[in-house]
Design a protein that fits this description.
By secondary structure, this protein is α/β, with parallel strands linked by helices. Helices cover 40% and strands 18% of the residues. It contains five helices and seven strands. The chain has a seven-stranded parallel β-sheet with strand order 3-2-1-4-5-6-7, sandwiched between helices. Strand 4, helix 3 and strand 5 form a beta-alpha-beta unit. Bound molecules: NADP nicotinamide-adenine-dinucleotide phosphate (NAP).
Length: 185
Amino acid sequence: MKILIIGANGRIGRLITPAFAAETDVVTAGRTGCDIAADIADGGSIREMFAAAGNIDACICVAGDSETADIAEMTGECLAVGIEQKLLGQLNLVLIGQEYLNNGGSFTLTSGKMGDKPVAGSSGKAFVNGAINSFVMAAALDLKRGLRVNAVSPAKIGTVPDEDVIAAYRRSVEGSETGQIFRVY
Ligand SMILES: NC(=O)c1ccc[n+]([C@@H]2O[C@H](COP(=O)([O-])OP(=O)(O)OC[C@H]3O[C@@H](n4cnc5c(N)ncnc54)[C@H](OP(=O)(O)O)[C@@H]3O)[C@@H](O)[C@H]2O)c1
C-alpha cells in the first residue's frame, strides 16, 4: 500500500506519519519540507501532486488552515481562510484525486470536534468542520471504482490520547468503511 500524507510536518502529521511509515510506503506533501511541494488551495498544484506521487492507495489530509473570532468581530475575510484552505482545499483533493487514486483507494480528510461541539468564539472553525463532515457523508455515495472517503474529527491534540488519533486514521485507511466521521473525543 502506498499512502500520500498531506501536512505530514504538522502537529497531527507528526503523530500519524511515523505510524504509517513503519509499515508501508509513505509519500509526504506540503507547501514546504516534504517529498512533494503542494498547496491544496490551488487545484493545479493538487493535480501536479497526484501525478508526481503516482499509484496512490490512500490519501490522508492533515492540512488546511482556518481562522475564527468572536461573532461580534467576525469578518468575511476571516471565514474565507477556512473556506479556501481547509474546506475547498480538502474537497478538491477528493474531486481531483478521484481521477488518480488506485481502485479501492481511500481519502481521509480532517475536520474537528468544534463541528459538533463548538465553544464560544469558534464559529469560523465550526462551520468548516461541519461542512467537511457533510461532504464526506454525501460524496461517499457517489464515488466510483470502490473509492472510499471518511473524515477524522479530533479534539485538540494533547487532550486525547495520541494512540486514539492514530487509530482513527488507521481505521479509515485500513478498514472498509466509507462516508464515516471518526470522532476522537
Ligand atoms: N491540532 C489540533 O489540535 C487539531 C484538532 C482538530 C482538528 N485539527 C485540524 O487538523 C488539521 C491539521 O492540524 P495541525 O494542528 O496538525 O496543523 P499544523 O500543525 O498547522 O500543520 C499543518 C500542516 O499542513 C501543511 N499545510 C498547511 N496548509 C497547507 C496547504 N494549503 N497546502 C499544503 N500543505 C499545507 C503545513 O505545512 P506547510 O506550511 O509547509 O505547508 C503543516 O505541515 C487542520 O485542518 C486542523 O484544523 C487540528
